[in-house]
Amino acid sequence: MSEANASGLAETEVKARALDLKSLDNPRAMKLYRRFDGIIILVLFTFLVLGIQIQFTLTAGDWDYWIDWRDRRWWPLVAPFSLLLFIAPFTYGIWERVRLPIMATAVTTLLCLVSWLSRYLNFYEFTHFPLSFTFPSTYIGLGILLDCALAISRSLIVSTLIGGGLFGALVYPINWSFMAPYKVPVEFNGMLMSVADMMGYQYIRTTTPEYLRIIEESTLRTFGGSVTPLTAVFSALCGMVVYAAFLWVGYKINGLDKFTKRIV
Amino acid sequence: MMKLIAGKTGLRTLLAGLVMVLLAGDALAHGERAQLASMRMRTVHWFDTKVEPLNVKVGDIVTVTGKLVTSEWWPKHMPSIEETVYLNIGVPGPTFLRLHSEVNGVPMMRSTAFPLGKVYEYKTVLRARVAGRYHVHPILNVKDAGSLVDKGTWLEVAENDSGAPFVNEITTLTGETIDLETYGLDGVYTWHLIWIAMGVAYLLYWLIRKELFIPRFIRIRELGSDRANELMTKKDFVVSSLFFTTALALILGGYLWAENKYPITIPLQTGLVEVEPIEIPTGGLEVVVDHATYDLAGRSLSMQLQLTNNSEGPLRIGEFLTANIRFLNPDVNEGEIYEGEEMVSKDGLTVSVDTIEPGQTVDVELVASDALWEQYRMTGLIHDPDSRFAGMIFYYDENGERFFQEVGGAVLPNFF
């Protein structure tokens, strides 16, 4: 009995795999593979951009549309949760199959680009909202951290603890560099408002009344009142749990290939 | 042959679709006819709505004023306005800036709560921002119930003469005067470009290589999962470490930079404000609703009322208002019709008794009849789950002073 047969593979499968491996030394085959790779990138990235746009709109929607929704408590929890549950299954599949730590960066970068397109066409050109009120948040740096944690550690567990944790914890800091000006205080009709609140009041949204926002609702403030760091710690924990849970989902999805025919 | 038929069918479908798109009118209103008849009759009675001026230029001020009464016949199956409500304005997006809004003199930047059976006077000051023709509606957003819309008024906004870009300046508590139209965008663009460049650079590093998806798949399959990490090179490790360090440094550096540049910031503000309601100023007319019928064929609502005049002078009923539709009594001819006002039936109300003398108790039939019932889809009230009506009657004393109060009760349909 051959070694291949001992591993449970049929003779034809062993031969086919040997041919596949040999083809890597064949320039014509490699040229064909490169074309296929291009198609894979095109299909995969198209699917990712459509998928994340729909998924993020449905789950994080208004939190990312309006600057007066991005509070210190809910937005830093909702946004990474929504992103990581999409990123994790793809990361598992691509890592297991081709060892490319790119999915978090790809998803966050594509989301950023498509969000800008949407904000410009839908919000600015079509409905006249100023971009200063509707610019998207950025999560690209968090995606890079998550992918690099995987590339450096080469371990999904370590990347979950470090990358998933940082992804959750740093949502507020990464956006604060350009979001801080919108939290400068303003006095209006004898009441204190931030610039973002003021924009939410002045730029009329007929069916998005003020009370729909979920601002500072929860009990985290009871731990000494430090809302932002406490939310970051909690969000880091959530990031690890959500990422781990959906890596498992990816593992399960990845196992479905036993039902498919060999395609390469 | 089949291909030819399929091709012709496809072409026709395409042309039909194109014609429909080209002929479709603009959606200019806010669905005020779409709401259930009971929602419009028994939630909020809007009246005296005035939008002025009706022709402005970009940058000009428009004032919307009016009154509303919260109905005591509020449907029990609908979340109440007594919990959370927000005074809003129905315009197509931020074509106007909201400069000020108030209810009974209280500024309305936040949400509030309205007890039932009270009067509220509201005012919203707008500044025209985008040229166009707009249907402007006052709106109350009621939490968990949705939007309650007053009737609209058409308003023309022309371009301003100078053609200068629209500017919306405010002064912050830190003393800086800023234009909200473009405020903070330099920082937004800069940081987004930095991160997009980082993301693209990272992706290019991993995607531009001789062996990508299929070759790597083949090699990993050959190596097995235990040795798959051998595909990760030392260069991959170094480059990833560099990206990791740079990203972390940028995040933390950017955060500290912003903290230094904007040392005074506050969290987003929220909360409810309280508004003192105004009691309905009745003029001494006691109203008892005996019964009411809705005549489907005649498009009319008939109310049998018992009215007692407890005042010292004669009273005359001049108007019935329900679901934003005004039915005026032409014999009294007192109700003012504002410029541009819609949904008014000038002779839609007939009252069986012209004048109710002091101390007199009379049975009166009020008939509110007009095609507006059909036009504004009020015939749907026969499909309501609790078949009740409500509205406001307006009556006048001998000096022409106006009083109002709400009437309501069960309504029976008359199908034939």
SSE topology:
The complex is a heterodimer of chains A (264) and B (416).
Chain A (H helix, E strand, L loop, with lengths): L2 H4 L4 H13 L3 H33 L1 H5 L9 H24 L4 H24 L4 H4 L5 H14 L2 H14 L1 H9 L5 E4 L2 E4 H8 L24 H28 L10
Antiparallel strand pairs in A: 1-2
Helix pairs in contact in A: 3-5, 3-6, 5-6, 5-9, 5-12, 6-8, 8-9, 9-12
Chain B lengths: L1 H22 L13 H5 L2 E9 L2 E3 L3 E10 L14 E6 L5 E8 L2 E2 L11 E10 L3 E11 L3 E4 L3 E6 L10 E3 L5 E3 L5 H23 L5 H11 L10 H28 L23 E11 L4 E10 L6 E7 L2 E4 L15 E2 L3 E3 L9 E9 L2 H4 L12 E9 L5 E9 L1 E3 L2
Parallel strand pairs in B: 2-10, 13-22, 16-17
Antiparallel strand pairs in B: 1-3, 3-7, 4-8, 5-6, 5-7, 8-9, 8-10, 11-12, 13-14, 14-19, 15-16, 15-20, 18-19, 20-21
Written account of the structure:
The complex is a heterodimer of chains A (264) and B (416). Chain A has helices at 3-6, 11-23, 27-59, 61-65, 75-98, 103-126, 131-134, 140-153, 156-169, 171-179, 195-202, 227-254, and strands spanning 185-188, 191-194. With 264 residues, chain A is mainly α. In chain A, helix 3 (27-59) packs across helix 6, helix 5 (75-98) packs across helix 6 (103-126) and helix 8 packs antiparallel against helix 9. The longest helix of chain A has 33 residues, at 27-59. The radius of gyration of chain A is 23 Å and the shape is elongated. The two termini of chain A are 26 Å apart. The model of chain A has no long low-confidence stretch (mean pLDDT 91). Chain B has 3 domains: 37-174, Jelly Rolls (Sandwich); 185-261; 285-414, Sandwich (Immunoglobulin-like). The relative contact order of chain B is 0.14. Chain B is of the alpha+beta class. The chains are: A mainly alpha (264), B alpha+beta (416). Chains A and B meet through helix 2, helix 3, helix 5, helix 6 and helix 7 of A and strand 4, strand 5, helix 3, helix 4 and helix 5 of B.
